Amino acid sequence: MAKIMAVDAERDLITLLQKLVESEGDTFVSVTTGRAAIADFNKVKPDLILLDLILPDISGMQVCDKIRSVSNTPIIILSALRDKGRIVEAYERGANDYLPKPVEPGELLAKIKVQLARSTGPHQPLGSPEQARGLESPRPFGDFVIEALLGHGGVGTVYRAHPEGRPERKIAIKCLAPELSSNQKYVTRFLREAKYAHAVDDPCIVKVFEAGHHHGTYFYAMELVEGSSFSEYVKQRKELDILRVLLIIGDILNALAAVHEAGFIHRDVSAKNIMLDEKSGCAKLADFGIAKRSQGDETTTTSVMVGTPHFMAPEVIEGRDPDIRSDLYSLGICLYFGIVGKYPFKGDKMQLMFQHTSKPMVIPDSVPEDIARYVSHLTDKAPEGRPNHPGIAMMELTKVIENHIRKQRAE
């Protein structure tokens, strides 16, 4: 027998919900305000919540946020609001399902049955290394099946997975760390990362398919790239392949052109965020975690320094507005790293910041002259000294590649 809590101020609907719930042999409890729902939650300990978005005191979204910060209890939204944006927001803030008013009794009972079955099944939030190591594989996860751990970092964990019923289609699922799921700032940034990556469609971008929330875990499903990062490739290679490095940079210029066209700045172009797909041979740009819109964004303000220190443009370090040329600077550092095999500057974070803004970059004499000039153009200390569009940088790179191929054939 389950305990169902309804949070709604409509008396007629409460009467209907009580009859439906009790007809299934379950216990029914109701409150008419959001604050009452929050206050009574720990005392009532409901197995499922039916929640209206419009309440007399606070919004249903606020109730959803508060409950989701302390519990994975299933929440079904019941609302007369049919705005697609509000429905998406409800899911993003932790709702498990949505049913428009007036409520159809049979459909509501079916949704309650499904959510109760899922909540009582074998599950736990995903996202931390400890949970990843204890993972039973394969394991159902919403509409997906988790197969294996791929890796984990400061904000979450990435798994190999496949859509339920389609084991041949391999994807990756990134889960936000459980300890961050109650922090709205991290949740918003995580979901924004998925939203921005989904909005940029290009073969050289790691594609995000969908984002959601399942039993206490915020996640997004994305393309699985079988291969190493550019950073790993450079560190593990046995000999320098200049042409391959140049072609990798070309792929990421294509990615940045798509990012720019979609109205974004990536802000974290780095060797670890370039993935090398073994199947397609294409390099792909990943991780839109700190990306922002070129104009008018609600993300981190420019006075807050974000990015990877080894690859940060001088204007970013100085707190000035970044633009696509900042991403091109970072890509220039990637090219230097790929050709030389090490970073142009070394030291702690403060030392790196000083060198990026003030110290000339010394390119070894072993680097071919035209490649050295190209690196210098991308990494000019002043944004005005760099190409102002990825397309221009690509035209310059094409000439460098053609020149390199001619030299190879002449040898």
Question: What is the overall silhouette?
Answer: elongated
Q: Please tell me how large the radius of gyration is.
A: 26 Å
* Tally of helical segments: 14
Number of domains: 3
Total beta strand runs:
15
Strand order, main sheet: write it out.
Answer: 6-7-8-9-11-10
Low-confidence stretches: none
Query: Percent of residues in beta strands?
Result: 15-25%
Main sheet record: 6 strands, antiparallel
Oligomer: single chain
What is the CATH C-level name of the largest domain?
Answer: Mainly Alpha
CATH homologous superfamily of the largest domain? Transferase(Phosphotransferase) domain 1
Could you tell me the CATH topology label of the largest domain. Transferase(Phosphotransferase), domain 1
Mean pLDDT: 89
CATH architecture descriptor of the largest domain: Orthogonal Bundle
Supply the helix-strand structural class: alpha/beta
Distance between the termini: 81 Å
Secondary-structure element pattern, one letter each: EHEHEHEHEHHEEEEHEEHHEEEEHHHHH
Helix content: 40-55%
